[in-house]
Specification:
This protein is α/β, with parallel strands linked by helices and 336 residues long. Helices cover 30% and strands 25% of the residues. Strands 3, 5, 6, 7, 8, 15 and 16 form a 7-stranded mixed beta sheet that branches. It has a 6-stranded parallel beta sheet with strand order 11-10-9-12-13-14, with helices on both faces. Strands 2-1-4 form a 3-stranded antiparallel beta sheet, covered by helices on one side. Helix 3 packs across helix 4 and helix 3 packs across helix 9. The protein is globular, with a radius of gyration of 20 Å. The chain starts with a strand and ends with a strand.
Length: 336
């Protein structure tokens, strides 16, 4: 099968940082695995981080943790899908990725593809939808339908932020404040439904207090948490909740949270698949509900740029754009 891999950690400007390869087809699925023919993928910051930090020492390592495709075969214990079904998923970080024509994936982390979307549009959704959903509802414990409170989304124009804003607006009554620094990113966050958009490059405390004088109850910090940490602690109300997904460059001084009894919550969407938790099936249910919401017109896809077929040159372009920190929404690739 055709695939795109990397063999050593190199700058993305190096043509050998990602290469086109031919690999053996995956073996027939066992257990609850599905074998999926991948039609489209999207690219996430995790792809660039692993490429930079996990050197495969010359072996072919396939990245990619967002895909939409068609089920080719199902393992003997699989019951959720059958050959021919159209699906979308984010996969598992400890298994070969989706930048390949064929991929095996556990059905418990797979959802039905939204019927109203094409494969490229659908591929933009899984990882960010699961991450935003788990952070909002599982980690921060926001109740579906809650009508009171204020949510601040730091980095709202990125992939996870784009889904977090939509989910909070459609499934809760929270006042949603997103941060974005450029006119085009601010416009995007407003389109997604944020009540207010503020610029995180300047005085974040003053900007947020101007639109939320009563303070913030929940924070989803999606990028550069260490830069904004002091401001977030100051903005959070007593007994507020701070959730994050990034990797702070410097340790956070959690003692600053004690006086207000603020709680800290990590979200890592691979936890359930990595540890095969008892509730691993939750990600299947999340993706199916996201598909229902998309088909009902309540959520929109977040594809912003289609970079062409799935090959090394186009994936290098995608990685470079993500590493620049200027991406709005999601970058997708389609077909081999």
């Amino acid at each position: 099968m055709k695939a795109v891999a990397y063999r050593q950690s190199l700058p993305i400007t190096d043509e050998q940082s990602l290469v086109d390869v031919i690999l053996p087809d995956p073996s027939a699925p066992t257990g609850r695995d599905l074998l999926v023919r991948v039609h489209a993928v999207s690219v996430n910051p995790v792809d660039t981080k692993i490429r930079q930090n996990a050197d495969p020492a010359g072996s072919d390592k396939v990245l990619g943790w967002d895909a939409a495709g068609t089920v080719v075969a199902a393992g003997p214990e699989a019951s959720l899908f059958k050959p021919g079904d159209e699906v979308f998923y984010a996969g598992a970080i400890d298994r070969p990725g989706s930048n390949a024509q064929l991929q095996r994936v556990d059905e418990r982390i797979v959802g039905r593809k939204p019927a109203c979307l094409d494969f490229a549009q659908a591929a933009a959704l899984p990882l960010t939808s699961i991450t935003a959903w788990e952070l909002l509802f599982d980690r921060l414990a926001v109740a579906r339908g809650v009508q009171h409170g204020t949510l601040l989304v730091v980095g709202a124009a990125g992939g996870v932020g784009s889904m977090a804003v939509q989910l909070a607006r459609k499934l809760t009554g929270l006042t949603v404040i997103g941060t974005a620094s450029r006119p085009q990113t601010q416009a995007w966050v407003r389109e997604l439904g944020a009540h207010h958009v503020v610029d995180h490059r300047h005085d974040l405390v003053a900007a947020v207090r101007a639109v939320a004088p009563d303070g913030i109850d929940y924070v989803m910090s999606l990028t550069h948490t260490e830069q904004h940490y002091d401001a977030l602690v100051e903005l959070l109300n007593p007994q507020g909740r701070l959730g994050l997904i990034d990797d702070p460059a410097t340790p956070l001084d959690i003692r600053a949270m004690k006086r207000k009894s603020i709680s800290l919550h990590w979200e890592f969407m691979y936890t359930r698949s990595l540890f095969h938790t008892h509730d691993m099936l939750a990600q299947h249910r999340i993706l199916d509900e996201v598909a229902d919401l998309v088909d009902a017109g309540a959520l929109r896809h977040t594809q912003r740029e289609h970079l062409g077929p799935i090959n090394a040159a186009n994936l290098r372009r995608a990685h470079a754009q993500l590493e620049s920190g200027s991406t709005i929404g999601k970058l997708v690739l389609e077909g081999f």
